[in-house]
Design a protein that fits this description.
single chain; alpha+beta; four-stranded antiparallel beta sheet; four-stranded mixed beta sheet
C-alpha cells in the first residue's frame, strides 16, 4: 500500500533488538563462566548450549534485518487502519472500526510471564470471533473463564458485553506508537472514533472479585 504525508506511519526500529541482544550477552557470560569454572557437561549438553546460542544470535540478526528494512508495521490512513506485521498484512476500513485501543497481553512462560504492549481496533459485535492474523487476545474467552467472570459480577470483561469485540490487533515488538500522534491521525480521518485503553488479556479479577467468584461457584 502507498501512504501520504498526512498518514501516521510506524516502521520497525532498533527497539526490538535490545532484548535478544541482552539474551546473547547473558549466554556469552554464562558460557564464559562455565568455561572458567572448568565445567565439563558432556557432548550433548555442549550441543544444547551451542544450539541455544545459535538461536539467540539468529533472532538478533533477524530483528536487525527488520530494523534496517524499516518495514511499515502500522498506519492510520484515509481508508482505515493498516497492520503490516503479524501473520499477514491486514487493512481494516473505518466502517468496521468503532474504537482504537491500546492494551497489554500477558503470556505465561514457565514460572514467569511475558507482557506485550499491543494496539488494536474494536468493531461492533456481540460475540468474539477468531480472525486470521490475530493472537490469543482476539479469541473468545473460554467458557470456564466466562463462568468465573460472571460469578464475580464483572461481565464487562467479556468481549461483546459492551457491543464491541476485538477485530484485529498486533503486538508492538520492536516498535511503538506515539499516543498523541495516533489520536491526531485518527481524529483527522474518523473524528467519531476514540482512542481508548482497552481491557488487558487475559481478563483478570481483583482479589476481592476472585474471592466472590470462588464463593459463588462453591455454593
Amino acid at each position: 500500500m502507498e501512504f501520504t504525508q498526512d498518514d501516521y506511519v510506524v516502521r520497525t526500529g532498533w527497539r526490538g533488538i535490545v532484548l535478544p541482544l541482552l539474551w546473547v550477552l547473558g549466554w556469552i557470560a554464562l558460557s564464559a563462566g562455565l568455561w572458567l569454572a572448568h565445567w565439563r557437561p558432556g557432548v550433548w549438553r555442549d550441543l544444547v548450549l551451542l544450539a541455544a546460542g545459535a538461536a539467540l544470535v539468529a533472532e538478533c540478526v533477524r530483528r536487525a534485518r527488520l530494523a534496517l528494512q524499516r518495514k511499515v508495521v502500522f498506519t492510520v490512513h484515509s481508508g482505515g487502519i493498516y497492520f503490516g506485521d503479524g501473520l499477514g498484512p491486514q487493512n481494516v476500513p473505518w466502517s468496521r472500526i468503532c474504537a482504537v485501543e491500546l492494551f497489554r497481553e500477558r503470556i505465561p512462560q514457565l514460572k514467569s510471564q511475558t507482557v506485550y504492549h499491543c494496539i488494536g481496533v474494536r468493531s461492533p459485535g456481540a460475540k468474539q470471533v477468531q480472525r486470521p492474523g490475530n493472537g490469543p487476545a482476539a479469541r473468545p474467552v473460554p467458557d470456564r473463564s466466562v463462568a468465573c467472570i460472571l460469578a464475580a459480577v464483572r461481565p464487562d470483561l467479556i468481549p461483546g458485553h459492551d457491543g464491541t469485540v476485538r477485530h484485529a490487533y498486533r503486538r508492538m515488538v520492536g516498535w511503538r506508537v506515539n499516543r498523541s500522534r495516533l489520536a491526531k491521525a485518527v481524529h483527522r480521518y474518523a473524528p467519531e472514533v476514540p482512542v481508548i485503553d482497552g481491557p488487558d488479556y487475559p481478563p483478570s479479577l481483583r482479589w476481592g472479585e476472585g474471592l466472590r467468584a470462588k464463593r459463588s461457584v462453591s455454593r
